[in-house]
Write a structure and sequence with these properties.
Distance between the termini: 43 Å
Mean pLDDT: 91
Structural class: alpha/beta
Low-confidence stretches: 1-14
Radius of gyration: 18 Å
Strand order of the largest sheet: 1-5-3-4-2
Number of helices: 9
Order of helices and strands: HEEHHEEHEHHHHH
Length: 233
């Protein structure tokens, strides 16, 4: 299996006819970048969700991977110092990295020129989530510096599964909605452990909470499932 992933990683590198990302890459363009050079804009990922995505990547050809990365657009912002900041698809990118794939197709959605206002612009545009799993503020300096160092946020997994099931909706132009739900779910569920063993039961509890009046201040409430297929009590 390790050899298979190694071959897949080698095949994926340079498999698509894309220029390497540069500090001057135009906004709206697609380019190829080393995943090791991407800086996260969130403090963690749901590892169970990453693992599921990694399993779905098994056996995909380089062409299929390229098609996946184009369909599930991986957006980046280029910073004044030329750094590449990943503003969405952290779970997919982490799954690619953990699977031995070193290069990714990305889309440049902005190039910011003013170093002094960089982080205010990132937050104003919803391109960074400067909070930990409990919803407490963090500084940009506290963000993990590389994709491979993102810690596990179990309630982010729960929120992601809740979204996939249709219990809240996400505006495509507003990132990190899942983190608001993750923090709220953790508070409501008293941060009880979420593991592969109790994931199904935890998700049922989360579905009930998502349709409750207490969730009405969260972005994307209510999801269509709350009216068409409410969870059993």
């Amino acid at each position: 299996m390790r050899l298979g992933w190694l071959l897949l990683g080698l095949l994926s590198q340079g498999a698509w006819a894309l220029d390497t990302c540069q500090s001057s890459s135009p906004v709206g363009s697609w380019c190829q970048v080393s995943i090791a050079k991407l800086h996260p804009t969130q403090a963690g990922v749901g590892q169970l969700q990453v693992d599921e995505t990694a399993r779905e990547l098994v056996g995909k050809s380089a062409k299929q991977l390229d098609k996946l990365m184009k369909k599930k657009e991986i957006p980046i912002v280029i910073a004044p110092d030329g750094g590449y900041w990943l503003v969405d698809r952290h779970h997919l990118t982490t799954a690619l990295w953990q699977s031995g794939i070193k290069e990714a197709r990305v889309k440049v959605i902005a190039r910011l020129q003013d170093k002094g206002s960089f982080w205010s612009q990132m937050q104003n545009n919803h391109w960074a989530w400067l909070k930990n799993e409990q919803g407490q503020p963090i500084t940009p300096q506290q963000l993990p510096t590389r994709i491979g160092t993102l810690p596990d946020y179990p309630y982010r997994t729960l929120a992601g599964l809740l979204q996939d099931a249709g219990y809240f909706q996400k505006n495509k132009r507003v990132y990190f909605v899942e983190f608001a739900w993750a923090s709220w779910l953790g508070q409501q569920m008293q941060w009880q452990p979420v593991t592969q063993t109790n994931l199904a039961a935890s998700l049922q509890q989360a579905k009930r909470l998502a349709c409750s009046r207490g969730a009405d201040a969260l972005p994307g409430y209510p999801g269509k499932q709350c009216s068409t297929n409410p969870p059993r009590s």
